[in-house]
Each structure stands twice: as C-alpha cells, then as structure tokens.
C-alpha cells in the first residue's frame, strides 16, 4: 500500500519532468529552425553590428554565445565576432568565457533531457568515439575539442550523453578550445583592422595561423598519449 502511494506521489513529478524536457527540446528545435532561416544574418560582422553599440556589449555577447552554442551556430563565427567587437585581448577573454559557458549549457541540457533515453553506444560512427571520454577523462575531452572538426554544439550535446564528470568536461573543454578560440578571434581582429584600413592586421593573422598549427600538433600529441580503448 505504501509503495503504491509513493509511486502515485512520484507520478505527477515524473510527468512534470517529462513535460519540461519536451518543452526544452521544442524550444531548441524552434531556435535551430529560426537560426537556419536567418543564417544570412549570422556573419561575424552582423553579430558585431547587433551587439557592439550597447554599453552592456560583453554581457550581451556572452548571452548570445550561450544561445549560439545551443542552436548549432558555428563557434568560429561567434569567436570572430568577438575579435571584431573587442579587439585582440578582450576578444580572447570574452570568447573564452562564452565558449566555456556555452559548452556547459549544452552539456547540462543533454544530460537533463537524456536521463537514459538515448543510448550513445547505439549511435553509429561517433558513439564509441565519445564514450572514450568516460575512460580517458579530460584529456580525451580536450582531444575531441582541440580541432574544430565537429560542430561545437554537437560535441556539447554528445558529451552530455556520456558519464564523463562535469568537472572533467569543463577542464577538457577549456583547454581543448583555447587554440581554436585564439585563431578565430585573431582572424576577426585582423579582418576588422584590414576592413577599416588600419595597420597591424598582419600580426593577428599570423597569430591565428600559428594557433591552428598548435592545434594540429596538440591533437597529434594527445592521440599518442590517450589509449584507444
């Protein structure tokens, strides 16, 4: 009798959680559709024009970065916009913070929505690759992140489906995303200087290229150190 009463008491809570997951998924799908239909307006210059004229530009940028991380908007566009908006050094700061916040948001959303619904092992091609993060921890997360081969949002959601700890995920994401963030921000800053006719665009361009080279070297080094199984 008591067990039945407990099950009856848990039923409304279970339905509420299910409704929350469905609503959250619907909101994300609607956001993805909206972003896709307005993709012409998502260039770095358009993002910069929309956000940079406000005194709260850093806060708006961070909020936009989190939203972009949930809607499959390429991180390269947002990081390049940071270079356009804030320049070399502050662009790196805000792009790094926004990237970590966006990564955390996608990870937590996937972990909340999934709750055993999706079996990552059943996913072809990518499933076993992401499951390595459960055994390898933050180094494997960094390996996955270090080169922008897979979409940022996809990686966030996929790693949220694994059992990797949140702390290991954040550390690996932070370290793995640094080379790409440096490259994209520097390219954005170089583009802003070149477009405005100001000198000094060559240095950030070279820094960006060097950051991409470092990313390739780091990925090679990580793959040598991290076991396949």
Structural overview:
It contains 9 helices and no strands. It has helices at 2-37, 44-51, 57-70, 75-114, 127-136, 138-146, 152-160, 166-195, 202-225. 34% of the residues are buried.
Q: Can you count the helices?
A: 9
Query: Strand-and-helix sequence, N→C?
Result: HHHHHHHHH
Cα-atom radius of gyration: 20 Å
Q: Distance between termini?
A: 48 Å
**What structural class should be given to the helix and strand makeup?**
mainly alpha
What helical percentage do the residues reach?
over 70%
Shape: globular
| Strand count | 0
Task: Let me know the average pLDDT.
Answer: 77
Strand content: under 5%
Query: Main beta sheet: strand number and arrangement?
Result: none
The domain tally reads 2
**Uncertain regions: pLDDT < 50 for 5+ in a row?**
none
Layout: helices, strands, pairs:
Blueprint: H1 2-37, H2 44-51, H3 57-70, H4 75-114, H5 127-136, H6 138-146, H7 152-160, H8 166-195, H9 202-225
Helix pairs in contact: 2-4, 3-4, 4-7, 4-8, 5-6, 6-8, 6-9, 8-9
Descriptors:
mainly alpha
Provide a brief overview of the structure.
The protein is an all-alpha fold and 229 residues long. The chain has helices spanning 2-37, 44-51, 57-70, 75-114, 127-136, 138-146, 152-160, 166-195, 202-225.
């Amino acid at each position: 009798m008591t067990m039945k009463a407990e099950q009856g008491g848990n039923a409304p809570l279970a339905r509420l959680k299910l409704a929350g997951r469905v609503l959250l998924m619907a909101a994300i799908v609607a956001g993805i559709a909206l972003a896709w239909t307005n993709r012409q307006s998502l260039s770095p210059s358009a993002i910069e024009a929309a956000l940079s004229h406000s005194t709260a530009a850093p806060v708006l940028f961070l909020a936009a970065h989190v939203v972009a991380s949930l809607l499959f908007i390429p991180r390269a566009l947002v990081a390049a916009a940071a270079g356009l908006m804030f320049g070399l050094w502050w662009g790196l700061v805000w792009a790094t913070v926004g990237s970590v916040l966006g990564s955390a948001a996608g990870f937590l959303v996937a972990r909340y929505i999934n709750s055993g619904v999706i079996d990552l092992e059943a996913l072809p091609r990518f499933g076993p690759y992401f499951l390595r993060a459960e055994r390898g921890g933050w180094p494997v997360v960094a390996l996955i992140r270090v080169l922008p081969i897979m979409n940022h949002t996809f990686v966030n959601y996929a790693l949220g489906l694994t059992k990797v700890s949140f702390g290991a995920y954040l550390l690996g994401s932070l370290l793995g995303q640094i080379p790409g963030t440096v490259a994209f921000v520097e390219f954005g800053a170089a583009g802003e200087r070149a477009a405005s006719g100001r000198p000094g665009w060559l240095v950030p361009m070279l820094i960006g290229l060097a950051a991409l080279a470092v990313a390739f070297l780091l990925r090679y080094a990580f793959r040598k150190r991290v076991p396949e199984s």
